[in-house]
Specification:
This protein is of the alpha/beta class. It has 9 helices and 6 strands, in the order βααααβαβαβαβαβα. The protein has a 6-stranded parallel β-sheet with strand order 3-2-1-4-5-6, sandwiched between helices.
Amino acid sequence: MAEIILDCDGVLFDWETAFAEWLLETHSICTGGTEPKEWDLSKWINCSPEDTMRFVHDFNGSEAFGKLPVFPEAQIAVKKMASVGHRLHVITSCGVTWPIKSRRELNLKRAFGDIFSSITCLALGADKSPYLEALPRGIYVEDNSDHGVRGTFCGHKTFVLRRSHNRANELVMGSAPMVIWTDDWAPILEAALV
């Protein structure tokens, strides 16, 4: 039995698509069907960084946040890891208010069932290191390479899923073996199911 530690947005759920739809519906801001090319979403939505963060906070506090679409491949992989007895943990920097936490937990249960040993919600952008350090060593899956590197320093085998917003980070990191970059869940499942 292994410990599997999972980020949520960009790993399990398609936060960006839901956020873009919410921006269009609530603020008439159109991303033009594109995906963000970096972590700073302000260029993607053509707003100031301050307005962008306000929109992110507002979205995460909205009902739409509790209905994020699951990545089908993630759903299959995570359920497969649970079926062989691995302990699954979610550490997510989405916000700490009660509505955000309860919507996150409900969204996870709807998409995956009651399979998580722990769900930890942190403040938006918070450092996950103390929580990664506290868990037994295992496999860590992220889309944020900075969090991924911290996971490696905490002793976890870390995979970073390639997404449009993190590609520049991979180029900067080069071939440094701090994290394992992957386009899909196949190498993660291979590591988890050996």
